[in-house]
Design goal:
Blueprint: H1 6-18, H2 23-28, H3 35-47, E1 51-54, E2 58-59, E3 63-64, E4 68-71, H4 73-81, H5 104-124, E5 127-133, E6 137-138, E7 147-148, E8 151-154, E9 158-161, E10 164-170, E11 173-182, H6 187-203, H7 205-209, E12 217-222, H8 225-236, E13 248-252
Parallel strand pairs: 11-12, 12-13
Antiparallel strand pairs: 1-4, 2-3, 5-10, 6-7, 8-9, 10-11
Length: 255
Amino acid sequence: MQKFNATHSKIIESLAIYKFLTYSQMVRLGISKQKPYLSRNMKLLLEKKYVARLDFGVDPTRGKLESFFYLLGKAKTLLMDEWGWNEEKIKLPIGRSSFFSKDYQHRKGTIDIQINVYQKAEQDGNEVLFFNTYYDKVGSANNGSLKALTSVSYGQDQYLIADAIFMLKKGENLDLYAVEYHRGIDSKRMLRTIEQYGRVLAEGSLSLKHGLNKNAKVLCVFEKQVCLEATKERFMNDSRFESLRELFLFMGIQS
């Protein structure tokens, strides 16, 4: 059996939770304080086919984009057979559709939000029971049944896809959250999305999907502070949301 040091193990276990991670995100997770040290340890995992890497080249405004790393099937077998992980807790990409480029920044931001949620939960003594994202899929592409785990139906044949859905356990209490991550400055567009969530919450379809007998909340996360403030002002002054205001939370991605 392949022998790993503590850093190798932390990389594999963290990728099983987050599915995709960059070196900077691994530093945030405390796997190592330095990227060069991570790179040296990653070399073995890449060579032995436990982990693979996605490269994205250069962005015209942001410069060189960080590579993402993800687990291969060999790592999943190791986690289950040797480390005692349950299969449903291990996140691996499904097919080439998971290999993203157009939504690089959005996906990277969604992972940053996931890291924030896990770290805040640990700090507060809570437990994240699950954290599903829009790029986590269920079903099969072969028969047309493949869909996002965060898809939520409402109305008549309508649905939305949340950027993420997660459940927190706080003592004996369970709380369900949907995440909507907005990177632009169009507050009107974000408000239209909030309208959709309002219908979902009014029907209780998100809570019903996850077997919870109380309403979920929506965490609206913004990259631009100016958009956060404009959206929140429109939301607070819109009488349509009066009965739902306590179910929407607004924050910046750095919060």
